[in-house]
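Sequence in, structure out. First:
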Amino acid sequence: MTNVQDHDVAGQDVASPALLIVLPQGLNVSGVTLWGVRLANELSARGWRCGLLLHGEPAGQERLELPIAREVRVFDHPELPAAGGAMCDAEVLHGVYAQAADAMWAGGPVIVSANLHGEVYGAAAALTRSHGVRLVGWQHSDIAYDTRVLSHYAEALHAVVAVSQTIEQRLLSVIPAHSDRVVRVPYGIEIPEAKARSPIAKRPLRLVYTGRLEHSQKRVLALPAMSRLLDERGVEHELVLVGDGPAREDVERELERTPSARMVGACEPIGVQKWLRWADALALGSRYEGLSISMLEALAAGCPVLLTRTASGASEAIEDGVSGLIAEVAPEADEQAAAAALADTVVRYLKHGEAALSASARQVAAERYGVRSHVDRVERMLAETVREPARVWPSDRPVGFAAGGGSVPSDAAERLEQALARLVRMGVAMERVAIHGAGAHTTACVEVIQRHGVAMIVDDDRGRWGSRIAGMSIVSPTEAIEKGVHAIVVSSHLHEKSIASAWGERAAGVAVHCLYQSEIQAA
C-alpha cells in the first residue's frame, strides 16, 4: 500500500472539483471500506481529485493493506474512534474534517461522501456552513439507523444514494419531499478471468465465508454450527472463514469443536480472490444486507452464493437455483435455525450441479455489477452535484445527530423507567440487570438507570470495556453472563432488534427486554 505521506496531487487541475470519502472505520474488514478505496482509485484514474479521510479501526481489528492509488490524497487519523464505538460528536470531528476539506480545495467544489454514522454526517453538515461543501449520503445497509440518519440530514444532501432497489423504495417513502435526490447506485466489482474447479465428486465440498466476523448483522456463528450439522449428515466438506471483526474470539471458540472448519483471519483483496477461486460456494448467513460486496465478489469469481434470505440486496442479485441458492429462514431467527437452513441448502446445492450455477453467477456479476457501470453512475451523480448550488444545513439546528435528537426518541427515559419498574415488580434484583448500549440513548437515560441502581452497562465495542458511564462499569456480553446477569434491557432505538436477536444466541435463560418492540425471551 502506498504510504500516506507519499500521496500528493501534483499535476492535477487546480480548478477541478474534489471528492472526499469518509471511512469512519479506517481500513478494516468491511465491504464499505473496500468500496470507498476502490471508488477513489477508479475516479482518480478518470481525472477526479479524490481523498480518503480515515478514522482508526474498530478495537481489536487489524488494518488491511489496501492498494491506494498515488493520486488519491489520504488523511489518516487513527486517533479518531471508529463508527460503532465511542464516536466523537460532530463538533469535535468538524475540526479534523475541515482541515481535510481545506487541503482538498483547489478552486472547485469539494464533495464530501459521508458514511455509516450520524456524527460523521453531522460533521459534514457543519462543513456546508463553514466551507460550502456539497454533501452526498449513502445507505449501505438495510437498517433503520441508516435510513434515520439520511432522513435527518436530507435538507443538506445533494444526493441520497441507495445501493439496492429495496433501500431506494424505502428512502422514497421516508423523504418524499426530497425524492428527486434519491438515486440507486449498485456496487461494482472487477470481473476476474474464469478459472475451472476440479469436480466436487473427487474431493470434499469447499465452502468459504469472507467478511466481517460479527453477530448482529452477519450472524456468523451460524456457519460453524452449519459445519457441524453437515458432519452429522456425513457431508464431507471444508469450511474456511476469511475475515476479522468483533466476534473473532467467539468464532475461534466455536471452531475448537468444529473439525471441518477453520479460520484464516483478515486477507488483502488478492487473498480473498484466492479463496473465492478455491471455493465451490460462498456461505452467508446475514440477517440484513444492503448489497453485500462479499456476495458480488463471489459471483464474479464464479463462486455461487448460498445465503439466508434478506429483505434487501440478495433477491436482486441471487435468483434461487440460477446464480445461487437461498435458505428460507427468518432474519430474526437465531444461529441454530440459520445453521439448519444453510445445511439443508448445502445438500440441495450438491444435488443441483455446481457448473451451471458457477457460469450463471459470473454472468449476473458481469451484466449487472461491473465496476465500470458503477463508476459511470457515480460520476454522473457527482457531476450533477457540482452543477447544483450549495445546500447549507440550517443555522438554527444542531449539527450533531445525537444532539439533534436523531437517535433518541423523546420518550426514551419514560420507556426505560417503565421497563425497570416492571422488573422490580417481577422481583428481579437490580444487581442481576444490565443495560445493553453505551451510546447516546443510555447517556440520555442515565438518571433513570442510576436511580434504579442497575449494576452494569453492556456494550459490544471492545474499546468501551473497562470504562464507565456515571460510575457504572461497561462490560462485554461475556463478562455480563459470567457475572450472572438475569435480564438485559436494550437501550437503543435504532439497533434494538439486532441487539435483542444477538442475545438470543449468547445465553439460555437471559431475558431480553426491549423498549420499542415486544419483549423477547431468550431461548
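Second:
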Amino acid sequence: MNHDNLHRIATEHYIRDVEKAFQKLISQTASAVVKTKLKKELFQFKKNPKITERINQILSEYENSLLGIISTGSAKQWNFANEKYNYLKALTLKRIANKIPKEVFQKELLKVAANTQNARALLSFQQRKINGFTLSDRVWNITKQAKEELELAIDLSLTEGQSANTLARAIRKHLNNPNSLYKKIRDKHGNAVLLNNTDYYHIGQGVYRSAYKNAMRLARNEINTAYRTSEQLRIEQNNDIVGVEIHLSPSHRIYDMCDELKGVYPKDFKWDKWHVNCMCHRRTIMKTDAEFIRELKNGENLPPETSENFVADVPKQYKDWIKENEDKMQNWKRKPEFMERNEKYWNGNDNYLENKKAFNSLLKDKDYTDVAFNPRNGGLKATHRLHSFDPNRGHYEKEVRDILFGAGNKIILAKERADVGEVVKDGQKHIDGYLNNSPCDISTILGSGKNTIKKAFQHSYKKGAETAILYFPDKEIFSAEKISFGLKMFNSHTDYEFKQILLIVDGKIIYHK
C-alpha cells in the first residue's frame, strides 16, 4: 500500500470540493443579483439593500463550507498518517515474525493497535497562527477577496434581461482571468476606483490575484501540512526510525529547489514541504532487522543513534543550497519555513561570521596553531600551543578535531600544561577543549573491556566537561550495547548529566544526546 499516493488522491478530492463550493458561490450570487439594475458607479453589494442580506448569507455559507472542507481534510489526513505508521510497523513485525518469540510478536502488535493518534497535537495544529492569522482568519480573507472579485465581475457582466445561468457563465469567464478583469474595470471606471475599493488590487508576496486560486492553495497546503506534521510526530516518537529520505513527487516535472534539496536527512529534521504546494514525500530509514530483532528479544528500545543506519547530519546539497542562497535571503522578510524550524542544522550567517571573525583573531594569536576556517560550512579549528598530545595516542585527538571541523563545527583544543614559570595547583585537571563553545573532553576507545565506556564518561565528568566525545578508531569495537551499558553504569554512581554526548565511529558523528 502506497500511503503517499493515496494521500495525494485524497487531497485532490478535497480540492475538487473547494472548486465545487466556489462554483456554487458564483451560481447563487448570479441568481441573487440577476434582476439588479446597474448604475454608472462601480457595482457593490452594500449599495443594493434588496440583495445585501441574501449575499451575506451566500458568502457566509461559502466561508463555512471552505473552512469545513479544510478542517475535515486536515483531520482525516492527519489520522491517515498515523494509520500509515501503524501499518509500516505491523509490516516490519510480520516480516521478522519467525525470528522472534511468538509472545513478543503478539505483544508488539498490540502496542501498534494502541498507538496514539496525537489528538491534542492535531487540535494545536488546527488552532495555530501563521503570521498572526488563524485558519479561520485566512478563510475569511479569501471570502472577502471573493466578494470583491464577484462585484467587479458582476459590474462587467450584468445586462438587462439575461438569465442567471448566462450571468454565472460571464462571471466565471471574468474570474478565470483576474488580470484582465482588473484592467477592464480600470478602463471602465478609472484606476482610482480600484485603489479606493479593492484591497487585492495590490497583492502581497504569496497571494494570488484570484480568490479561487488562493482557496485552492490554502486547502492543498493545509491538508498536506497536516499529513506531514502528523508524520513528523510519529517519526520522532519511534526509536526504530533512524533517518528519512525526501523524494520528489511522481508528478514533479519542472526543475526547482525540490531537485536540489532531495536526499537523506536526520529523523528530527522538521519537514512538511520545501515550498507552498510542494508534493514531495519522505520515506523512513529504519534500524537493521538484526538490530530490531536483538532489541525485541532483549526487551530493549535503544535510541536511534545506536543504529549503524543512523543519519546524523543533513546532506551536503542542503548546506550548499543555504550557502548559495545566503545573499538572497538577506532581502527576504522571512527565511523558508524549513530553515526556521531546523536551526540545529543550519549554520546561519551570524554563526558563520562569528566563526570567521574568531578565525581572523586566532590567526594573529601566537598561542594557537593549526588554525583553519572552512568557508563552505563555517567550520573552525585551532589548537593551543600548550595543549598536551599523548606521544602514542595524540594523533587520535587530532583526528577527532579534524572530523568535527570538517562537519562545520567550531573545535578549539585548549591549554592543558603550564607555561614557563607558571604555578599549577596539585591535582588540577583541564578539559581538552571547546566544541561550539561547550567545554568538551575526548576519549579514544581502543579496548573492549566491560568498564571501558564507564571509565571514559567518568574521565570526562571529573574534568567538568559538558560534552563527552567518545572516539572509536576501530568501528568493530563500537556497539550500541556497550554504550548503553557503560552509560547505565556511569549513571548508577553519579547524578551528573552531560549536555551532549558525541560518538565518532568510522569517521561519522553520532549525536547520542
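Remark: DSSP finds 18 helices and eleven strands in the chain.
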